[in-house]
Write a structure and sequence with these properties.
Layout: H1 14-19, H2 22-36, E1 47-53, H3 59-70, E2 73-76, H4 77-86, H5 90-100, H6 107-120, E3 125-129, H7 135-145, E4 151-156, H8 159-169, H9 174-200, E5 205-209, H10 214-235
Parallel strand pairs: 1-3, 1-4, 2-3, 4-5
Helix pairs in contact: 2-5, 2-6, 3-10, 4-5, 4-6, 6-7, 8-9
GO molecular function, one term: AMP kinase activity
Family: Belongs to the adenylate kinase family.
Catalytic activity: UMP + ATP = UDP + ADP
Length: 236
């Protein structure tokens, strides 16, 4: 079921390729070459969980606890991009240039980094934190990787609570950040909710009420993963 990434650029139409900025096109070609040399053996199909939730929903904290208790590898899409950007490699420089020019890093690049992290993970139970962020991300992931996630966790949190949490992490910048935070939350709803709705229609989504203390929220998360233990042990 797993496919090699030999040609990431194939996931992008010829028309789009022709219209891409040279820096972005070079970035895609570079990652296409790298990915082709780093496939996953067909006998190893990881149990993949997407973890979704708005900014301030607490998904990162809960992922750390899930990884610790249930033996999952925790992969953060944003962190993978930041790590690659900070590296002295040519790929890192290309990503920095794309972002510096105000362009969006193509889905294929983020997915390539995720695939690389899956390859090097010591566990075949994978949490992908904060990805996919949009339907375009989702479609690209399924097309390039060749599988859907086994499970999707969605942290439901009231907007006011998320705003409060984000402001608490950015002390001294409340007035400056309030408008920006609310815009981020609106963008999240617009882009991410179609992904949640898509997987909900397939019975893959478990919604977690993300209010209360960290431990109270994890009690709800624990129930979901504890119910999956037999499946995880037998199949993975």
């Amino acid at each position: 079921m797993w496919r090699r990434f030999a040609h990431l650029s194939l996931s992008i139409s010829r028309t789009k390729l022709q219209s891409l900025d040279p820096t972005v096109l070079k970035l895609i070609n570079t990652f296409s070459s790298d990915a082709g040399n780093d496939g996953v053996a067909s006998s190893r199909k990881p149990f993949i969980t997407f973890v979704l939730g708005g900014p301030g929903s607490g998904k990162g904290t809960q992922c750390e606890k899930i990884a610790s208790i249930f033996g999952f590898a925790h992969l953060s899409a944003g962190e993978l991009l930041r790590e690659e950007m900070s590296s002295p490699s040519e790929n890192g420089e290309l990503i920095r240039n794309v972002i510096k020019e105000g362009k969006i890093v193509p889905s294929a690049i983020t997915i390539s980094l995720i695939k690389r992290a899956i390859n090097s993970a010591t566990s075949d139970k994978i949490l992908i934190d904060g990805f996919p962020r949009s339907e375009e991300n989702r479609i690209a992931f399924e097309k390039i990787i060749g599988v859907e996630p086994d499970l999707v966790i969605f942290f439901e949190c009231p907007e006011e609570e998320m705003v409060k949490r984000i402001l608490g992490r950015n002390q001294g910048r409340i007035d400056d950040n309030m408008e920006t935070i609310r815009k981020r939350l609106k963008v999240f709803d617009y882009l991410n909710m179609p992904v949640v709705e898509h997987y909900s229609s397939k019975g893959k989504v478990h919604k977690i009420t993300a209010t209360g203390t960290v431990d109270e929220i994890f009690e709800r998360v624990h129930q979901v993963f504890a119910s999956l233990r037999p499946k995880l042990c037998l199949e993975h």
